Amino acid sequence: MNHVLITDFKSDSTYLKLQNRFLKKCDAGSFYNKQFKEPRREDFDIKYNEGEIVFRNDELFSKDKYITVSFHKWLVKRMNVLAQNYITSFKEILEERLILDEDQVKLLAKKYVMEAIEVEEYVKNSQYLNYELKNKLKNQISKIIEYLSQIHVLSNYGIDDRIKINANKNDLLLLFLLLREHKFIDCPYDSELGFLIEKSFMFYDEKTEEYKYIQKAGKELNNIKNNNKPVEKSFKRLKKILTSIIESNDIDSN
Prior knowledge:
- The chain is an alpha+beta fold.
- The chain has helices at 12-23, 71-79, 82-96, 102-125, 131-150, 169-181, 190-200, 217-225, 232-247, and strands at 45-49, 52-56, 59-63, 66-70, 163-164, 201-205, 210-213.
- The protein folds into 2 domains: 1-155, no CATH class; 159-244, no CATH class.
- A hairpin with a 4-residue loop joins strand 6 and strand 7 (210-213).
């Protein structure tokens, strides 16, 4: 059956569409095959055909198996993941669109928060949602707003979730550019490669003697690629390190 989204509770219209989507799952002729013209507060059931495939006399047959499904029970079962799914949707948009700029992240988060607040307002005032549904929805909305209000999507990859590289930032970025140039990795866009580097690695700062996050990696990769940033020293260091590793390797190259 259809999934339920937090945005199904933005208005009477969206809630009505949710109820009518549920009605469309009715497989037995009944009054509910007709669509509602306005949302219903009271619960209602549909007959849903789970259908079975049986093997008989060397042939396959479909066998009807109707069950009664309550709208409220169906809805409640799906409510515990509404916040999780909404937050996942937010993260997926960031990754799909490669949104790395902090201001752009905040702008998208604000849009999602305002939508969640709109849902919260409807839930609070709706005459079509009973006490149980309202409480469960309020709990999910609270989780959404709490998460998005903190705006920690790019920094929520903790220090233990990233690989610490004993190299400075330029050396690390140049290494990945060289790996891409020589077809060892398939990541054609600087913004995409930069995003993956930012969320996966940390570089070592010799001045402060600590590991640090990499910011605006996509822009820095582009500067190196277009010779806008000198990396001769980094190239020599990488060459020395890799040569040393190869020469000290005792494994037979054959």
